[in-house]
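User: Predict structure, ligand 4'-phosphopantetheine.
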Amino acid sequence: MQRIAVVPGSFDPVTKGHLDVIERAAGLYDELHVVVVHNPDKSALLPIAQRVALIERAVIDAGIQGRVVVASWSMGLLVDYCTDVGASVLVKGVRSQVDVAYETPMAIVNRHLAGVETVFLLPDPQHALVSSSLVRQVSALGGDVSPYVPPVVADFLATAMTP
Ligand code: PNS
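Assistant: Predicted complex:
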């Protein structure tokens, strides 16, 4: 039986921390779906299609495109996407107790809704302080985000976001 997992998130934009979790998860499952989901609690920098394109490029650059599908989902519950593609596991990166507290209720609800389990992976400590919101802020103020994001994202932000 194929073991299929989903890594969901806003990915606005994808960071080196996200990519670290994606690479680890790709090594654990037969097929991994990285799914960009609109989070209404966050104000967006990039359109969903742009976030998908940047993840696709970063996944190719990391050499893991063979087992990774990049998609977006705006049709309702995330677990419905999981059911559609036959995934039984969600994978989330947790950097701290704050992340665990944020993720735990979602994990329990997703298990109640559809029996989809959530697996928490610990990113490499060097990525522990990286977040998309920090990247958005540094980028908006003209700072160098290359330590925090894959090269394709750093290049994109440096060109597309320059006023
Ligand atoms: O990167 P983020 O913003 O922390 O990701 C949060 C996300 C998009 C994974 C979360 O908001 C989510 O799962 N949204 C899908 C809507 C849904 O299924 N909600 C009910 C169960 S939590």
